[in-house]
């Protein structure tokens, strides 16, 4: 990249763009690299103009210089005691011997000379970070790893998450292309992956090439994120992917995700899951399928090369995120993609989503539950305790689950019955999260919204209250923002942190929130487009039980809590202390 963009005469491994030390005196002069710093000092660049990519060799250097690129990406010159360095040009050439001293106060404030700052902005670290931070370009996520390590599981999880964020995403599985070229009965057996099988090798290469070509076509046609699900097990293969992405000329960002696993228990689970669900093992017993898969892995192990090229952007996941290694990953990927991957695991705990219990009409702010709402809270408590006994068995831990709710009083009171229903649950974790608060309707807020909610928000009532906004909302239901309030997409942004907590948890999770927030969360768990979340039914006094599958998806079941029998341990009523200035609640129960 450095040689192409800057016409650098030096090998890429020795160019200043490669973030290693360079001394032009020990080899051919790197005119591109030297011109990089010269352009940084031009006044038009200091005003924000983009540097030119056309470089002509500067005048010969009066003496050799030494450049070192580190975290600060500053060209090495004589450092003063306060750590401030500068680079200047004399007669058109870079003079690294001169420095511009700064005062101690400048150093304390973190202010430096314009010359040093401009030079820093043009060095390898910044330019690489800038290229990888630009979120307007297409993103290619390339899975890397031996068979049976969970690559397809990771790709499905990523697909669902990125789709939920509103991104245009496509997943391209090389195994599917292989089975299209050759039947699974023939191409799914271990001997088909023998490197000495020339005919099979040609078919596999052709299938992988066709898969990558379709992936890049998808991005060329406007796709936002493309996932390449294949082994991609050699350095040569990965460089070929980078080269083909570069040849498209659209500046696509490529991030490799290597899935590494040596935990016998995780491997056993992954192997069994692959044998049970992959078309390659259809018609085989589980034992025979696992044996054939183990033979296939041995074919790859002899030539497998882990990622060691630090010029690439990559994330390494060890044993399903028990350890994560990240290199050259910046921007939105560090905000959402990386935390999501770090929370990915194969635990089969249930997740429960419940809509807050009912409150009196026309009194929605700081309102206590109605008697019907209190009865729902008691039945919810009975249901959760029963399911926890089924999940944990006789070995019930002190903190058997995780509980999340919005900060609204109705939500808090809904979970109070559960928290106080069993004496040894007094230390049970309970977290109030403002991210789970209902959709902010701005100037259209008021009790009319909740009073008219059925199993969906009252869109018909909205059409009468503000017909102009309603028409705008109908045209774009995901992005239309309530006047002075939020859109559904805004809710996705803030609910993301709560979703991560649900994904991270290895124990059952109960989340109590409001209809719009539950619609947004269900859109993720059901794999439905976020643009259709507004129409997901969330019935009153029902609960959604969500169970992860080993394939990376979820099974969603709707449970009628009104049909749940009460048990004798459920308190009958919560006594609120609504007069408390901080909105706290009494932990005393009335008879």
In words, what does this structure look like?
It is built from 21 helices and 14 strands. The longest helix has 23 residues, at 198-220. A six-stranded mixed sheet has the order 4-5-3-6-7-8, with helices on both faces. 39% of the residues lie in helices and 12% in strands. It has helices at residues 2-6, 31-40, 43-46, 104-109, 114-121, 124-133, 151-164, 174-181, 184-187, 198-220, 235-247, 264-277, 286-301, 332-342, 371-392, 409-419, 447-451, 459-465, 467-475, 488-504, 515-526, and strands spanning 88-90, 93-95, 139-144, 169-173, 225-229, 253-260, 313-318, 323-327, 351-355, 402-405, 430-432, 509-513, 542-548, 554-560. The N and C termini lie far apart (74 Å). Residues 1-10, 12-103 and 573-591 have low confidence and may be disordered. With 591 residues, it is α/β, with parallel strands linked by helices. Strand 10 (402-405), helix 16 and strand 11 form a beta-alpha-beta unit.
């Amino acid at each position: 990249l450095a040689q192409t963009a800057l016409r650098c005469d030096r090998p890429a491994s020795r160019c200043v763009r490669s973030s290693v030390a360079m001394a032009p005196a020990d080899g051919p002069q790197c005119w591109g690299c030297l011109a990089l710093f010269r352009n940084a000092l031009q006044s038009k660049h200091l005003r924000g103009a983009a540097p030119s990519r056309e470089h002509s060799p500067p005048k010969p250097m009066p003496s050799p210089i030494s450049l070192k690129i580190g975290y600060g990406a500053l060209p090495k010159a004589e450092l003063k005691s306060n750590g401030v360095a500068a680079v200047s040009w004399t007669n058109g050439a870079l003079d690294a011997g001169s420095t511009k001293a700064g005062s101690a106060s400048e150093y304390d404030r973190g202010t430096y000379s314009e010359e040093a700052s401009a030079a820093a902005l043009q060095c390898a670290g910044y330019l690489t970070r800038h290229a990888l931070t630009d979120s307007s370009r297409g993103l290619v996520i390339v899975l890397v790893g031996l068979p049976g390590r969970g690559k397809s599981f990771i790709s499905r999880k990523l697909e669902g998450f990125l789709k939920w964020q509103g991104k245009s995403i496509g997943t391209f599985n090389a195994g599917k292309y292989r089975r299209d070229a050759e039947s699974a009965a023939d191409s799914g057996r271990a001997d088909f992956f023998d490197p000495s099988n020339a005919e099979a090798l040609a078919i596999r290469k052709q299938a992988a090439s066709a898969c990558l070509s379709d992936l890049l076509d998808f991005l060329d046609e406007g796709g936002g994120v493309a996932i390449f699900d294949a082994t991609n097990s050699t350095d040569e293969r990965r460089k070929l992917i980078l080269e083909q992405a570069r040849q498209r000329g659209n500046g696509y960002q490529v991030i490799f995700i290597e899935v590494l696993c040596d935990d016998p228990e995780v491997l056993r689970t992954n192997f069994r899951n692959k044998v049970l669900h992959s078309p390659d093992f259809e018609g085989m017993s589980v034992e025979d399928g696992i044996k054939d898969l183990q033979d296939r892995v041995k074919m790859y192990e002899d030539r497998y090369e882990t990622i060691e090229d630090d010029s690439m952007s990559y994330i390494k996941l060890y044993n399903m995120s028990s350890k994560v290694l990240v290199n050259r990953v910046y921007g939105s990927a560090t905000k959402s993609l990386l935390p999501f991957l770090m929370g990915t695991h194969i635990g089969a705990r249930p997740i429960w989503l419940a809509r807050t219990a009912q409150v009196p009409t026309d009194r929605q702010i700081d309102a206590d539950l109605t008697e019907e709402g209190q009865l729902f809270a008691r039945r919810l408590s009975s249901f959760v305790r029963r399911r926890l006994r089924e999940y944990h068995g006789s070995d019930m831990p002190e903190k058997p689950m995780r509980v999340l709710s919005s900060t609204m009083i109705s939500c808090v009171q809904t979970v109070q019955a559960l928290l106080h229903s069993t004496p040894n649950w007094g230390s049970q974790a309970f977290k109030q999260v403002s991210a789970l608060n209902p959709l902010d309707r701005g100037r259209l807020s008021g009790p009319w919204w909740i009073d008219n909610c059925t199993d969906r928000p009252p869109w018909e009532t909205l059409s009468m209250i503000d017909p102009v906004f309603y028409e705008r909302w109908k045209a774009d239901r995901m992005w239309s923002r309530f006047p002075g309030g939020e859109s559904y997409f805004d809710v996705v942004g803030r609910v993301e942190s709560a979703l991560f907590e649900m994904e991270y948890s290895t124990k059952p999770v109960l989340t109590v929130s409001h209809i719009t927030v539950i619609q947004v969360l269900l859109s993720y768990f059901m794999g439905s487009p976020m643009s259709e979340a507004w129409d997901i039914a969330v019935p009153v006094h029902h609960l959604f039980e969500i169970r992860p599958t080993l394939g990376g998806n979820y099974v969603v079941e709707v449970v009628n809590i009104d049909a749940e029998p009460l048990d004798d341990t459920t308190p009958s009523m919560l006594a609120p202390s609504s007069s408390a200035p901080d909105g706290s609640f009494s932990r005393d129960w009335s008879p």
